[in-house]
Amino acid sequence: MTLEHAHGRLVVWCSLLIGLLFELMPVPDVVMPFRPDWLLLIMIYWAMALPHRYNILTAFVIGTLLDVLLGAHLGIRSLAYSLVIYLIVINFQRLRTFPVLQQSVIIGLVLCCYHLIVFWVQFLLDRPPFSFELLLPALSGMILWRWIYWVLRRLRRRYKVK
């Protein structure tokens, strides 16, 4: 492995670490329902940009790590992350050709799927009540997608991540 490849991988894993820190960072109760899924958005970008390198296995490992750090039932987010990234990976060529505005709408739908999968599995385990507040992070993630896409694309081009 050359030094350039090592720098590329370091950039990706640092961005995922920053996303993990944003996931764990405490926020006020007023903002909590709108908290975007930072780690999933960053993982979606890397799965779209480099699907041969960052794919379902990476999503499973990151989801398991997030389950452990959040103290949730082990496997809920790893299952949801894996299914979402699978959807992204099998459609990455189509998604890359769409303008960023259309991508953000599709990303919003994918985030809704993620939250519904997480709710469904939690419903099977704990029977929590359904609330449409559950889908607010998908709305904020859809709005932030353009910014996340721009930042990560600049990083990818600057550091020649391949």
Automatic annotation (TrEMBL):
InterPro entries listed in its UniProt record: Cell_shape_determining_MreD, MreD_proteobac
Residue stretches spanning the membrane: 6-26, 104-122, 134-152
Cell compartments where the protein resides: Cell inner membrane; Cell membrane
Highest taxon above the source species: Bacteria
Topology class, membrane: Multi-pass membrane protein
Keywords: Cell inner membrane, Cell membrane, Cell shape, Membrane, Transmembrane, Transmembrane helix
Keyword Endoplasmic reticulum found: no
Family stated for the protein in its record: Belongs to the MreD family.
Function summary: Involved in formation of the rod shape of the cell. May also contribute to regulation of formation of penicillin-binding proteins.
Descriptive protein name: Rod shape-determining protein MreD
Gene name as annotated: mreD
